[in-house]
From TrEMBL:
Annotated protein name in UniProt: ABC transporter ATP-binding protein
The keyword Transmembrane appears for this protein: no
Segments forming domain ABC transporter: 4-256
InterPro entries xrefs: AAA+_ATPase, ABC_AA/LPS_Transport, ABC_transporter-like_ATP-bd, BCA_ABC_TP_C, P-loop_NTPase
Lineage of origin: Bacteria, Bacillati, Actinomycetota, Actinomycetes, Propionibacteriales
GO BP field: D-alanine transmembrane transport; L-alanine transport; L-isoleucine import across plasma membrane; L-valine import across plasma membrane
Record's keyword annotation contains Transport: yes
Listed GO CC annotations: plasma membrane
GO MF, any single term: L-isoleucine transmembrane transporter activity
Amino acid sequence: MSLLEVSKLTRNFGGLTAVFEANLHLDKGELIGLIGPNGAGKTTLFNLLTGVYPPSAGTITLDIDGTTTSLGGKAPHRICAAGVGRTFQNIRLFKDLTVLENVMIALQQNVPYNLFASLLHIPPYAASERRIREESQELLDLMRLGGKAKELARNLSYGEQRHLEIARALATHPSLLLLDEPAAGMNPAETAELTGLIAELRRDFGLTILLIEHDMSLVMKICERIYVLDHGIVIASGTPDEVRNNPKVIEAYLGEEAPSA
Ligand SMILES: Nc1ncnc2c1ncn2[C@@H]1O[C@H](COP(=O)(O)OP(=O)(O)OP(=O)(O)O)[C@@H](O)[C@H]1O
């Protein structure tokens, strides 16, 4: 069975169908792109996968090493605990906390928390806080933010804030990582660095990654397969070459940036 199996997934908002009978699957370790013109339903699909909205119809099944979970309609924290981490199109950080604290908070959500132990600073709490601090620093090092741990998140550049978002998502120990426009607002050099980093994360953590991205150079370079959404419908899927030469995809993108990079 695939790590993620989405079948006939549909979401209506009043009279508008944002996603209609979408089928997709991700095998363990794959790096898959989700593209489509503005308003195609990409973020809605992520929101369905992560419990922000319940599906109107269809199923979402996660299989991690033989443990199968039906995700459709579950609360976001339960989906996160099941192994799905994500970043957001609009960066969501605690801007007035430090970079390190931002990651520590995400990590803390995974650690059994004992209020009395924490207030009294008794050893088990101190040890767990030390572990959290160390792992947070490691995640920052990985995301090339090691030297910025003590900065306030608001003082990071836009590109650095996107790296911090990924560090926070990794702190939830996901098996499946959903990245919503990770390169948005980045310059070409930053995008190239991020492209390498995403490939590295997948390799080093054995992660399965689904990414939404408008930057075709990134998508075409690192994704093994790509799904194309248009008006809520999966109109094509395949390798980057198959997708970029698909007439339906070319037509969907007429008037937009063509997926040619
Ligand atoms: N909460 C909501 N209520 C009503 N309509 C919504 C809601 N969320 C999304 N939509 C609509 O669903 C459609 C798909 O939107 P969505 O944001 O998923 O597209 P997208 O492919 O992510 O677009 P973009 O590339 O511009 O971010 C749009 O018509 C949008 O207006």
